[in-house]
């Protein structure tokens, strides 16, 4: 398997984690409604009343997976399309996924802001390295840039 195609697997892992966090959020919402901690009407526009802290935290954890990770999926897809994946990109991709898993698990468990922010910033650094490396490659390797 080429390293470009191997980039699919970290993308899949992050996608599956996102699905699990979404399922957990749905289960928390159902439980909160059944227990009477939040009215079903709250979910019409998320403004009618308040929600329990655990539900708000679960929502934010899910929202976090909808913010920066799309930039990860884009860079991996571009790398695969351009056949630019290599072992370093693969290692960076897995590092990004691991850091996002750590950040998400911290958020969903003991929720220490400093620990969570450290994992988040480290994941963003990995993402920046991936994008900058590709940019430098496209600017310096003849034949990779599409003529305009």
UniProtKB/TrEMBL annotation:
Superkingdom of origin organism: Bacteria
InterPro entries cross-referenced by the UniProt entry: MAPEG-like_dom_sf, Membr-assoc_MAPEG
SUPFAM superfamilies per the UniProt record, alphabetical: MAPEG domain-like
Spans through the membrane: 6-27, 122-145
Entry keyword set: Membrane, Transmembrane, Transmembrane helix
One GO cellular component term: membrane
Cellular location(s): Membrane
Pfam families per the UniProt record, alphabetical: MAPEG
Gene3D superfamilies in the cross-refs: Membrane associated eicosanoid/glutathione metabolism-like domain (1.20.120.550)
Protein name stated in the entry: MAPEG family protein
Organism: Nitrospirillum iridis
């Amino acid at each position: 398997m080429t390293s470009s195609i191997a980039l699919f697997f970290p993308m899949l892992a992050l996608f599956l984690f996102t699905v699990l966090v979404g399922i957990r959020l749905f289960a928390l919402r159902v439980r909160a409604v059944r227990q009477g901690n939040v009215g079903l009407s709250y979910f019409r526009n998320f403004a009618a009343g308040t929600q329990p802290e655990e539900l708000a935290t679960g929502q934010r954890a899910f929202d976090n997976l909808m913010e920066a990770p799309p930039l990860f999926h884009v860079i991996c897809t571009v790398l695969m399309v351009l056949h630019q994946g290599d072992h370093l990109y693969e290692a960076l991709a897995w590092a990004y996924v691991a850091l996002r898993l750590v950040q998400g698990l911290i958020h969903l468990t003991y929720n220490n802001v400093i620990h969570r922010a450290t994992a988040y910033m480290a994941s963003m650094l990995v993402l920046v390295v991936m994008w900058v490396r590709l940019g430098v490659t496209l600017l310096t390797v003849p034949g990779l840039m599409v003529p305009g």
